[in-house]
Design goal:
The protein is of the alpha/beta class. 31% of the residues lie in helices and 25% in strands. The chain has eight helices and ten strands. Strands 1, 2, 3, 4, 5, 6, 7, 8, 9 and 10 form a ten-stranded mixed β-sheet that branches. The chain is globular. It starts with a strand and ends with a strand. The structure holds zinc ion (2 copies). One zinc ion binds next to loops.
Length: 229
């Protein structure tokens, strides 16, 4: 099975490690596929504006450079480690209220999607790009003051757009996802080197982006594992 992590941040947003070093960390740890998913934050809230001030966000202006660098690293990762590197973003709708906030991974993104647009518009643009849509950390995280509950609370409305839900994120497991029998994956939400040791996804499919996307969508041959090196 392929050892995968589809939720990874770099210095392009609020991660502490440069993209190239991140690729080497996962390559040397023996991963088969990873996705780089830096934050693209909404600028229409107080918290969103802070992210822009500290440049903790991908913007329309640096998106192409971000994508080019990921693609450059993807070629290097394949030659050096036989590891796939998938370009992505984490659309981050941050508000003071947990009930209003949501984070969404867009995997295999090709064009910038403005994070301030409506959920429907974001999901439709992702679908048009044939990207995978993942609802991140969709339920309460222990010790976290601000949670991202909007998509879970509105799952009946938006569930049809979501290819998979994070059933586990770093150390947390969201049993509600299994109770609802939703399609699932598990990711590290990597921001620092120690986050390598966390929940991961195992996929029983061929090592190419088309097969990986199909496997996540059909959600057959998917398992999760707690990676400890
Ligand atoms: Zn997040
Ligand atoms: Zn994240």
């Amino acid at each position: 099975m392929l050892l995968c992590d589809f939720h990874i941040h770099t210095k392009y947003s609020d991660g502490s490690v440069e993209l190239r070093k991140v690729v080497d960390i996962f390559g040397q740890a023996g991963f088969d596929a990873i996705a780089i998913t830096d934050h693209a934050v909404n600028g229409d809230s107080l918290i969103g504006k802070i992210a822009y001030k500290f440049r903790f966000t991908i913007t329309e202006n640096n998106f192409n450079e971000y994508l080019e660098n990921i693609n450059f690293e993807a070629e290097r990762a394949w030659n050096k480690y036989e590891m796939l590197v998938i370009p992505g973003v984490e659309i981050s709708k941050n508000y003071l209220s947990s009930d209003k906030s949501a984070h969404i991974l867009i995997l295999d993104i090709k064009e910038f999607i403005p994070p301030c647009e409506s959920y429907e518009s974001i999901f439709l643009q992702a679908k048009k790009q044939q990207a995978i849509v993942v609802a991140c950390h969709p339920h309460h995280i222990k010790g976290e003051i601000r949670n991202t509950l909007y998509l879970w609370n509105n799952r009946n409305k938006y569930g049809k757009y979501i290819d998979a839900w994070e059933i586990a994120n770093r150390d947390d497991v969201f049993n509600v996802v299994s109770l609802k029998k939703y399609p699932y994956i598990a990711n590290s939400d990597f921001h620092k080197p120690r986050h390598l040791y966390s929940w991961k996804t195992l996929l029983n499919c061929e090592k190419n982006i088309v097969s990986i996307k199909k496997c996540i969508r059909h959600n057959k041959g998917v398992a999760i594992t707690l990676f400890r090196g």
